[in-house]
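User: I'm putting together notes for a lab meeting next week and I want to include a structural view of one of the chains we've been expressing. I don't have a solved structure, so I'd like a prediction I can at least talk through. The sequence is below, exactly as it appears in our construct file.
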Amino acid sequence: MRVFFWHVHGSYATALVQGGHEYVVPVLPDRGPDGRGRARTYDWPANVAEVTPSEARDLDVDVVLLQRPHELDLAAEWLGRMPGRDVRAIYLEHNAPQGRIADMRHPMADRDDVTLVHVTHFNALFWDAGSTRSRVIEHGVVDPGYRYTGELPRAAVAINEAQRRGRVAGTDLLERFERALPLDLYGIGAGALGGVDDPPQRVLHAEMPRRRVYLHPMRWTSLGLSLIEAMHLGMPVVALATTEAVEAVPPGCGVISTDVERLCGALRRYAGDPCAARADGMRARAYALERFGLDRFLRAWDALFTEALTCA
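Assistant: Thanks for the context. Below is the predicted structure for the 312-residue chain, given as C-alpha cells.
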C-alpha cells in the first residue's frame, strides 16, 4: 500500500513509517513546513520516498493521510485529486482542541468522506467531530531500549517552542521546578531559554536517561511523545495531572498531580533516593512497552488502512 502524507511531526512519523507499506512525503527546495521531505534528525527506513510536486501528479496513491486542514487543498494541488472523493483519506489529529468547550468543533466534523483518527482518548472526548467516523489509535514509539543511569541529579524536560507556547507548555513553571531540582531543557527553540536546541533523537535518547527524572510540565497538550519515550528509556516521571497524562503514568511509575508543590517534593525525593527513582523507572518502562508498544500501534494502523481501502 502507498501512503502519502506530509512530514509534520517527526517523532510520530518515525513510528508510523516502521510499518510494512510504502510511504511518500512531499519535498520542496526550502524543506519548509509543506515540503520537509525525509527526516534529518530521526532515523527513517528506506521505505520512505520523497516526491516533488511534478512527480506527485503521476503518483499512484492508495491513501492520503492528512494532518492539517489546509492539506486538503495541498493534496488536491500536488496530486490533482481531491482527498475523500478521488482518493481515500484519513485525517490524523495530533492536538487537543483550543477554546471554550462549546466551540471545540473539529475542522473535519460531519464528513462522510474521511475517517478522523485521534491520538488520545482525551482528544476524542473534547473534540466535537459530529457524524464523522472517528477512531483512537494511541501513540506508539520505536523502543530505544533501557538506557537509564540517572547518574545526574537533574531533571530532563523536552518542550518544543517552549518560549512561544508559554503557559500551555508549562514554561512558566520551570523556574519553580528548578528550585527543587536543576533542569535540562531540550527541544525546538530551547536554546533561547538556555537549553539544547532541537537535538537529534539519538542525542536526546542518550542524554535524557543520564538525568534522574523526566519532568512533564504540560498544562494542555495531546500527550507529548517525549514522555512516552522517557518511560521507554526507563526514567521515572513527574508530570502535571492534566489531559492524557493521568492515563499514561499509572501509580508506581512516577508522580502526577495538579499540585506543583507536591511535584517539586517528588523531584526532591528522587534526587535523594536514586534507588527509588530506578525502581519507578523500570515500572514505567514495563508499562510503556505494554501500552505504547510499536507492534500494537502498527497493527492498529494496518487495520485502518485496510478498512479505508475496502470501505471506500
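A couple of points you could mention at the meeting. DSSP finds twelve helices and 13 strands in the chain. The chain has two domains: 2-140+294-311, 152-291.

User: Perfect, that's what I needed.
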